[in-house]
Design brief:
By secondary structure, the protein is mostly helical. Helix content is about 80%, strand content about 0%. The longest helix has about 50 residues. The relative contact order is 0.04. One of its GO terms (cellular component) is chloroplast thylakoid.
Length: about 150
């Protein structure tokens, strides 16, 4: 680790643009450019330092943290839908029981009506003949009421 930091310090102290030899002659001794080995060491050191950094999670980034919230909302929605289906199933069972009890009540009412109105075949024919005679009587009186005064004049 000490060699990594010393190579980083050495790399930062290198000049960005080479200084002409004439300007260096009077001031300082010429500095040598880093060799291939030094560059290789510098690149591996920076890669190692980069690898030691804590990797960022997408959930930690505010924009991508929405995924986590969305996932929770989806799970809650699934639970609500499951509860809804259970309630619907219970409602269907209760409705079926209500329909069955209504059918039993209708059947009982039909039986009571059949027993109360049960006529013999001859009695039923008599009732029908009486209804027809009543209908003919009413129809004649209506026709006589409409045509009555005119028919009597002719």
């Amino acid at each position: 680790m000490a060699s990594t930091s010393s190579s980083l310090i050495a790399a930062h102290s290198l000049p960005v643009h080479p200084i002409p030899q004439k300007a260096q002659a009077g001031k300082h001794a010429p500095m040598a450019l880093p060799t291939r080995r030094q560059c290789l060491l510098l690149f591996t050191a920076t890669t190692a330092l980069k690898a030691m950094e804590v990797p960022a999670r997408a959930q930690d980034i505010p924009l991508f943290g929405l995924r986590k919230g969305l996932r929770k909302a989806e799970q809650e929605a699934e639970e609500i839908v499951k509860e809804g289906f259970e309630a619907v199933d219970k409602g269907i069972v209760a409705a079926e029981k209500g329909v069955e009890s209504a059918e039993k009540g209708i059947e009982a009412a039909e039986k009571e009506i059949e027993t109360a109105v049960s006529f013999g075949g001859l009695a039923q024919a008599g009732v029908v003949a009486g209804a027809e005679a009543l209908g003919v009587l009413i129809a004649t009186s209506v026709v006589n009421g409409i045509l009555g005064p005119e028919a009597q004049k002719s």
